[in-house]
Design a protein that fits this description.
heterodimer; A: mainly beta; seven-stranded mixed beta sheet; four-stranded antiparallel beta sheet; 11 strands; B: mainly beta; globular
Chain lengths: ~110, ~120
């Protein structure tokens, strides 16, 4: 199985900050990488698929990049509604696997 | 508007069974692959399995922890997805989500609100 890591498990940031979240795969997955946002008590929401394609309706301050084994999710200017946990997921091979998540909280 | 609504969760004893339905609306259900994802309390997301559309053979695939215990099925005439869970274990306690699968990178494009299953004696 492909394992996904997301160091660090949490980070603190302020409104307006540029935030970068990292995701790594234990083997190459090309660009088969998706990013989700989950707020407390809510279902996850797809932000970015195929490493860099923004899902419809997602604000343009979110962007994704990377290929192979290393990926990043960037929030260009953190907004109050962005405080949440972010998960990456590889869609390259079964079983699909998620990273453990990175929680973004208020500094 | 795409809507997915899960139900059927509740308290069940270890070794018991439960079936979770998910009703879909707002899209052509028969054309779409579907998945189940779960989240144990305070933990991360875990992919359980998926079912292809009948045009894609209707085949199912499962994660190892649930293989041979869980079965995913669909009824395209009713826009329904199901998760049959047998031989339940305490570690199956989680919120269970049904999701649609997009055309690229197997992304879970839309999610239901989830239903909580508690396995406890």
């Amino acid at each position: 199985d492909i394992q996904m890591t997301q160091p660090p498990s949490s980070l603190s940031a302020s409104v307006g900050d540029r935030v970068t979240i990292t995701c790594r795969a234990t083997q190459s997955i090309g660009t088969s990488l998706n990013w989700y946002q989950q707020k407390a008590g809510k279902a996850p929401k797809l932000l970015i698929y195929a490493a860099s394609t923004l899902q419809n309706g997602v604000p343009s301050r979110f962007s994704g990049s990377g290929s192979g084994t290393e990926f990043t999710l960037t929030i260009s200017s953190l907004q109050p509604e962005d405080f949440a946990t972010y998960y990456c997921q590889q869609g390259h091979s079964i079983p699909l696997t998620f990273g453990p998540g990175t929680k973004v909280d208020i500094k | 508007e795409v809507q997915l609504v899960e139900s059927g969760g509740g308290l069940v004893k270890p070794g018991g069974s439960l079936r979770l339905p998910c009703v879909a609306s707002g899209f052509t259900f028969s054309d779409v692959w579907m998945t189940w994802v779960r989240q144990a309390p305070g933990k991360g997301l875990e992919w359980i399995g998926r079912i292809k559309s009948h045009g894609g053979s209707g085949a199912t695939e499962y994660a190892e922890p649930v293989k041979d215990r869980f079965t995913i099925s669909r009824d395209d005439s009713k826009n329904m997805l199901y998760l049959q869970m047998n031989s339940l274990k305490t570690e199956d306690t989680a919120v269970y989500y049904c999701t649609t699968v997009g055309n690229r990178a197997s992304a879970s494009t839309f999610w239901g609100q989830g239903t909580l299953v508690i396995v406890s004696s």
